[in-house]
Write a structure and sequence with these properties.
Largest sheet: 10 strands, mixed
Number of helices: 9
Shape: globular
Strand content: 15-25%
Order of helices and strands: EEHEHEHEHEHEEEHHEHEHE
Structural class: alpha/beta
Number of strands: 12
Radius of gyration: 21 Å
């Protein structure tokens, strides 16, 4: 594919995906990928957060960030299929030099959804909790000790329709011990509850294979002895051959610091992208909101966690990243021996 967009280039492709290096807004607005409009079933991404300090991977601040983020809404919306979804992970921000949380992330989300040209609905909010995150903001948490650790990010699910494609039966989590006992006994205390609801004798006796996932997603067990009932998301993609992935079985791993990609980066003395999306998080929404053969777009792909997960889960994917350094780093993911993929490097 030849692109006429300045500073944008087609870097590589696999059997299912393609990776571009360049400015997302310029590329998606240029018409170079016009054949993809209306065909994307899921846009999932973790864009540069509205941080107060400039990072290597780039980020705007204040009003400039809000305007930039707001203007992405109609661009993304134009690529969505009729029942497609947008899933965006956004971290928190703090006022510069102050122990005060910034409203910019929430203002940006509101501006994005309320952009009338995009015609989007906010379907649901998810909280992604990661107790392994380093104490931050460090000045107020570890130095002055007047704030607690900022240990979660928001994940916002949006769509142009009230009824986007979704199936929570595909992302079940294990039953609690009490529910397992109930299913084994085949009886429980039926009748009227204080809430006014009447529970029939057979209401909870059918085994659905697990309980419905919550919108609070724990990235690991909070403490020793605590067993988080996480959705059945593959713990470590590297442990299971791609052709042996259990149907509808996914598990969020406690960390991904020892997967193939991370190990290879350490071997090659390369610095990992500082804001990599957790593979379990990407896999959860890919399984929840798409089917095999659907098309997924990550417009801020970084080291291409989304593309890697999509390839493993038999979805088509398109990735865009402005940093050529991280684009080259992403190639390492497709060296993973569990993938049955061939990379064709274009540029």
């Amino acid at each position: 594919m030849m692109l006429s967009v300045d500073t944008v280039k087609f870097m590589y492709r696999t059997q299912l995906g393609q990776y571009f290096v360049g400015d997302t807004n310029k590329l998606l607005s240029s018409g170079a990928l016009a054949n993809m409009k209306g065909s994307i079933d899921l846009i999932i991404t973790s864009p540069p957060f509205p941080l107060n300090n400039k990072k290597k991977y780039g980020n705007l601040q204040g009003t400039a960030y809000l305007e930039w983020f707001q203007n992405l809404a109609p661009v993304f919306s134009g690529f969505l299929s009729e029942r497609g979804s947008i899933v965006i992970e956004i971290g928190n921000a703090w006022e510069s030099g102050r122990p005060v949380q910034s409203l910019l992330p929430l203002e940006s989300l509101m501006a994005f959804v309320k952009n009338e040209a995009a015609e989007l609905n906010l379907i649901q909010e998810f909280i992604c909790y990661n107790p392994s995150r380093l104490p931050s903001p460090a000045e107020w948490v570890t130095k002055h000790r007047i704030r607690t650790v900022d240990s979660y990010t928001h994940v916002w699910w949006m769509s142009k329709t009230d009824y986007p494609k979704a199936d929570n039966a595909k992302v079940l989590r294990p039953y609690s011990k009490s529910m397992q006992k109930l299913l084994a006994k085949k009886r429980f205390n039926a009748g009227k509850r204080p809430s006014g609801h009447t529970i029939s004798e057979k209401a909870f006796l059918k085994d659905h294979g697990g309980s419905i996932a919550h919108n609070f997603i724990e990235m690991e067990e909070v403490e020793e002895g605590y067993k988080a009932r996480l959705p059945y998301i593959i713990k470590d993609f590297a442990e299971i051959p791609a052709n042996k992935l259990p149907h509808n079985i996914l598990r969020l791993s406690n960390t991904n610091s020892n997967d193939f990609f991370s190990r290879e980066l350490r071997k090659r003395k390369l610095v990992k992208h500082p804001a990599t999306m957790h593979p379990g998080l990407a896999a959860f929404f890919i399984e929840f909101l798409t089917d095999e053969g659907d098309h997924i777009l990550d417009p801020f792909a970084g080291s291409n966690t989304t593309g890697y997960c999509a390839e493993r889960m038999n979805r088509k994917w398109t990735a865009i990243e402005i940093s050529e350094e991280y684009a080259k780093q992403s190639l390492i993911r497709f060296e993973d021996p569990v993938l049955d993929s061939t990379i064709e490097i274009i540029a």
